[in-house]
Amino acid sequence: MAQVLEFKLPDLGEGLTEAEIVRWLVAVGDVVAIDQPVVEVETAKAMVEVPCPYGGVVTARYGEEGTELPVGAPLLTVAVGASESAPAATGSGTGSGTETAPAGDGAGPAETSGNVLVGYGTGAPAARRRRLRPAASPVASVAPAVVVDPAPAPAQAPATAPAPASAPDRSGPVPVISPLVRRLARQNGLDLRALAGSGRDGLILRCDVELAIERIEQTAQTPAPAATPAPADNGTSGASAAGAVTERVPLRGVRGAVADKLSRSRREIPEATCWVDADATELMAARTAANAAGGPKISLIALLARICTAALARFPELNSTVDTEAREIVRLRDVHLGFAAQTDRGLVVPVVRDAQSRSAESLSAEFARLTEAGRSGTLTPGDLTGGTFTLNNYGVFGVDGSTPIINHPEAAMLGIGRIVAKPWVHRGELAVRQVVQLSLTFDHRVCDGGTAGGFLRYVADCVEQPAVLLRTL
């Protein structure tokens, strides 16, 4: 008899606790090989294809596209040792008399992955348990399985008053895995025991809590009788005078991660900003001359990054982070340079590793690679983490200046405005020059204004006279 193994959403690293199903790559009844990607999920950091560590026939999928699952929740089940013609369940976990092993059970060396996911691997098989599943389910791909416990569950008493169909009384532990779901319920005053989860085995997901919050708010927004005669209908009678809510956008995925990180930065970091205008005419001319000499084209942001790494070598206080628990400033040796990029999925900050040891050509190539990966949604969590300093080129939006929020836990961010023709005094005479505004937002805990001002002045000097940079190369 085929052994049915349950594959749960693995820990994708970097402290991620949940992921949203973007696209299923397999269907129920498909034959999958070991380490074959079976689903594409979106985390707070990137889009990731998740490989299955088992080979066999897919018997069930848990969650539709767009469903958010916590780490450890079932993704699918695979019948190991079954032939391609073996019967597969048409719903989510439906079937009878099939032995199902949880996701840590082994199936022998030939039937498990040689790679190691967090929570999976090639170790000795663990003890198996049997699950009794309902014979049929009216809803495909979301029907929860029932685990048979040694003690029978107490019979439910008949309800004495009408109650929502999805809010049974719970006297045991609340079936919640994600701490984010608990926090969301606590912030909105929801009793999780009154909710029925849509996840497997009644697991309460974030979407369940958000739906309950939405219902409460819709009830609270019922318009009261007007105290004065209503004005003439102007085509907006569907909106209340106080302003109706037209849309609620969940803060999750990339948007939620950005919101959490920026909020934490504002809470923890006492930031300050200084700025200066610089004549970038000579830098633009140097870039034109370098590209005319042949070879790979050098981007402007690559030149600014090279200037930035030279400035950090002079002022290492700004390439650091603060350990609040130890009350220490941790100065970092390597410069992992992040750069803010706007994509269809929102703001992301890819990281160029070891920027201090790269040439302008190498920086240009890496910026181009990461930018393209950001646009196509193929950035990995490793591409988006580990930065020590951020370069923010908001000039691409046609603005001159900004006071950005520091990318926690970094200590500083260099902002670059648009380069535009302006009147400028050059060699004692008024001339039209290419002028850029530079700003530095820094954590005042790691340095004082003198250090921040010295850093920014050095960057401006290199922009105005690129030959200054040659002294540090």
Tally the beta strands: 20
Uncertain residue ranges: 84-99, 103-110, 121-170, 235-241
Q: Over all CA atoms, what is the radius of gyration?
A: 29 Å
**Could you say which overall geometry the principal axes of the C-alpha atoms support?**
elongated
* SSE succession: EEEEEEEEEHHHEHHEEEEEEHEEEEHH
How many strands, what sense, and barrel or not for the largest sheet? 7 strands, mixed
C-alpha end-to-end distance: 69 Å
Derived structural class: alpha+beta
Mean pLDDT: 78
- Helices, by number, come to 8
Quaternary structure classification: single chain
| Strand composition percent | 15-25%
The proportion of residues forming helix, as a percent range, comes to 10-25%
Task: Write a compact overview of the structure shown.
The chain is an alpha+beta fold.
